[in-house]
Amino acid sequence: MTLELIPQAVAQDAGPFTFPGIVSEGAVRFESEDESYMLLVDYSENKVVIGQQTPHTDMLLTMIDDDWQSENHAALLAFTQFAMGPIAGAERASTTNLHSLSTSGTKQSQWSMNRYITRGDIAWNRYDTAFWASSLLQQNGPNWSQIAFFAYDGTTEFNIATFSSNGSEINTDNLDIDFRFASVNEANFLFLNAGEDNIVLGATTGFFAGATNEAMLRIYHDQAGDYKYPLAVEVDNSNAILYIASHGASAAYGAGWLGRHARGSAASPLNTEASDRLGFMLWGGYGSGTFGNHTGFQAFANETYSATGRGTRLEFVGTSDGSTSRVIRMIMYEGLQVGPTPTGGDKGIGTINVSADVYKNNTAYTNPDFVLEHHYRGKIEEFKNNPGASEYSGLLDLVKVDEFMKENLHLPGISRGPLGVFDRGDVTLMLLEQIFLYLIEHQKQLQEINPLLN
């Protein structure tokens, strides 16, 4: 079939063209050498069909090619746009192709977008100075489909992402390509740094200022007040546990929690100043419609940080029954301070300063008392379970005490070995009770001889 187009200068007043097709029952059909229905325009159905007679019931345009492989068709449909490229003598082209095939009962459809160039006598080479992208939709049977995105660097084609009914993958070929997801307020709401193997929320780098790449997951936000809790974990009907584990052969390895604080910003940190809170861990419950944080511990800078001084203290806090106020229970600095504000404060390395008293098993010390029981009752029964009761045999004669001290240079019952403060206190009380008994016996003897002296 031959179709002649009349030039516009001639045709502009000649009215609409009438194409020499076969008109039948409200339709126009165009034939080709191999296709009886190369083009069918069905006026009654308001549909256009290419390659067959019957249009698809839901489609305005239907294209069918049932022998595209034998005819060596590259695509069922192609849209190509040419433009002059940056290389002299080269043209760029963007091509969209649509394929459809049926083999052995397996159906497959494919849609792709490719970018090509022509350079001199080299035709249709992929553009080697920019990435090209293609997406593929396939269906092999009723239960499998996928969409794939590719990139081309001039030499190799890479799979950027694949989404299918069997699962999805991003960066399938393990490329050094970063992925960024933006939100309304955050340009880097989620940033995946493939080259550095880290994930960042709210930033583009996975490490903090002044350090190497130390974090696999980083949460960063520079707008104070927007997020009260950058990370929240909530669990219903189970324990909410943050599990941290470390594995390795080195004694230096361990599971820990590292907290750091600086004034300024992450990009430009400033020195931490005295009394700045470095970090905290607080726990609380729920009551009267609100949660409270009423027990835990927190770390403070004890001085402004410098290259030579970074004093730090740790405070343990709690809340008493009938109160909602959190108060200091203990402070660890150089020494240990027990109580809100013990007089004198920190007494130095290795010291303990308490604001009230020190108790052992509900008393300030374990009273020996078996000394007095043995002296006045002749045996130990009531206080037989007190430490030292089973070894106590009663008052020694002062002559024997004198001989013992001359030989050992310490009182009987006193050990030169290490003893705790409470054990030392018990021995001291035992000796004090014995001294009183010696004095009382001495007083009785004086009372007996005084009449004889007078």
What does this structure look like?
- The chain is an alpha+beta fold.
- Among the domains are: 20-63, no CATH class; 268-356, no CATH class; 370-453, no CATH class.
- 12% of the residues lie in helices and 30% in strands.
- The strands form seven sheets. The chain has a six-stranded mixed beta sheet with strand order 20-23-24-25-26-27, with no helix packed on it.
- Helix 2 runs parallel beside helix 4.
- The longest helix is centred in the last third of the chain and has 33 residues, at 421-453.
- Mean pLDDT is 75; it is low at 1-19, 80-110 and 115-143.
Task: Characterize this entry briefly.
Helices cover 12% and strands 30% of the residues. With 454 residues, the chain is α+β, with helices and mostly antiparallel strands.
Outline the fold blueprint.
Layout: H1 8-11, E1 22-23, E2 27-30, E3 39-42, E4 47-50, E5 61-63, E6 77-84, E7 90-103, E8 106-119, E9 122-126, E10 135-139, E11 145-152, E12 157-164, E13 167-170, E14 179-181, E15 190-193, E16 198-201, E17 217-219, E18 263-264, E19 269-270, E20 277-283, E21 286-287, E22 290-291, E23 295-301, E24 312-318, E25 327-332, E26 336-338, E27 352-354, H2 370-377, H3 398-408, H4 421-453
Parallel strand pairs: 4-5, 16-17, 26-27
Antiparallel strand pairs: 1-2, 2-3, 3-4, 6-7, 7-8, 8-9, 10-11, 11-12, 12-13, 14-15, 15-16, 18-19, 20-23, 21-22, 23-24, 24-25, 25-26
Helix pairs in contact: 2-4
Number of strands: 27
Largest sheet: 6 strands, mixed
Largest beta sheet: what is the strand line-up? Answer: 20-23-24-25-26-27
What is the molecular shape? rod-shaped
Q: Which value, in Å, is the CA radius of gyration?
A: 46 Å
Measured as a percent range, the helix fraction is 10-25%
